[in-house]
Amino acid sequence: MKAKEPNQKSAALQDTLRAVAAFEQILEAIPNDRLALEGLFEAHSRAGNRKQAEDYLLRLAACVIEEEDIQGAAFALERIHTLGSKAAAVADLDKKLEVLAARQGPATTAAPAEHARRRAIDITAELTLAWDLVQAGELTEDDYANVVHDLSENLSKNVAVPVTVVHALHDRGFKALERILCYLSVRSGLPLINVARFEVQREAGTLLSLDYMRRRGAIVFDLMNKDALVAVLNPLDKELLEDVRKQTGRNCHFYVVSPESYDACLASITKLLEETGTAR
Questions:
Q1: Class for domain 192-276, per CATH?
Q2: How far apart are CA 67 and CA 96, in angstroms?
Q3: Where are the domains of the chain?
Q4: pTM of structure
Q5: Is 256:165 a contact under the CB 8 Å cutoff?
Q6: CA 53 from centroid of its chain's CA atoms
Q7: For position 112, what pLDDT does the model report?
């Protein structure tokens, strides 16, 4: 086990570097994107880059104050206190955040803020996938920049489908999307399937919640005895595959799916669950 630790640390470092590069790309397109600012703060904090972490946290706090986001203020205030900086700029923002956070009451806690909704959708795995596709020669750097920009923008939209690389490519009319899907199938060792052809039964359709299917990009489209047949949009996201196993409590067989096929299947399941009153 100890022999693997250096490799594990190296992999973690590479993941952090990829996340930093992706979030910086977002900031180039959207300078005050709060998801990117928060992501850069977290990434630099994990890497021990205190000065960079503080800089991004201050930018995030300034955005929260400008937008008068009460719930965002509570989050930023907690992080600033954890940082423990005595810099004058930090102290000034700290006071403004405390004033803003103090305005929080029952009316504001009843419904989550838009920032809270955005943070609930973690696109780190999608950013990593986009970079992997560049490294594999499947995407150009311009394609990558466009995808990262679209991922960030889609987080702010109230869409009923997952925020994924393949959705971004599909929406841009990317001509080689089929090649990308074949690459994902070969790389993951999972077969490519058209789930739109399946008539999903209620038992399968209710193993995952609608919210989960809309956020995470995984859908149970059929059962084989008690095993779940699951279509995923990012088969390289190992954490997603493991989480689906935990969520369903079943032995799972995974497949790669196109965004159009996924969306059609999701629409069918949504209709089924709404008609039977079992949507959750």
A1: alpha beta
A2: 12
A3: 32-118, 120-188, 192-276
A4: 0.69
A5: no
A6: 21
A7: 39
